[in-house]
Protein: ArsR/SmtB family transcription factor
Amino acid sequence: MSENNQLRDVFDAIADPTRRRLIRLLAEAEEIPLHELTVQFEMGRTAVSKHLTILKEAGLVLDRKVGRETRFRLNASPLREIQDWVAFYNRFWSTNMLRLNQLLEEEEE
Amino acid sequence: MSENNQLRDVFDAIADPTRRRLIRLLAEAEEIPLHELTVQFEMGRTAVSKHLTILKEAGLVLDRKVGRETRFRLNASPLREIQDWVAFYNRFWSTNMLRLNQLLEEEEE
DNA sequence: TTGACACGACACCATGTGGTGTCATAAAAT
DNA sequence: ATTTTATGACACCACATGGTGTCGTGTCAA
Structure:
């Protein structure tokens, strides 16, 4: 039943651009081993591995060993928390709100 | 016309729980001065002020001086970037994907 | 005019973060 | 059997982050 062992805040996990690129890469493929992911970046294998660990801690990534390689795949469901959070503020950037902010700014001058 | 001077990554700005609480507080009121925001937290005024500075750098907050106080208000529109980003991954946590992940996990055992 | 209040600007500090390099080991290829 | 590959586990380092306290100044109230 897909327990969410969230050792790490999802907001924190997606804050880093490298980790967002990892998520994107994993979204475009079924499974990718660490060494294939590493060549996509300009940093060492250890650094990429650390980022993947953080994504794992947030539940965004699953891994399994196949032979001598470790293959990673995306588990996007924790992102629902982000979507729910941002959806709440949806109404605050409607056209009406933009007009209101403009009026308040004019008022200041 | 509301230039987005984004000195700071919005993903980074919302990564901190204190800053998300600030956003929530500002969403529930028109304008709130720093000292009123400060009493809501268990940290000093300087710390809250720093968080607000980061939110300002991300364009999520506007401020203006009124007398001796500095009043802050929310500008939610940069959150659209978050919504657009997360919307892309929407299809990855559909029911079908959950079933697929379950099947892959069973396969591993 | 005196005092309290709200704030910005610092200096400061412990800890976290994002990177590096190295070493040992298991698996695959030769 | 030997060598190459892929990885995990470390130790290490520079710098960012999230907090503190203090000082000076403008503003409001008594």
Summary: Chain A is about 50% helix and 15% strand.
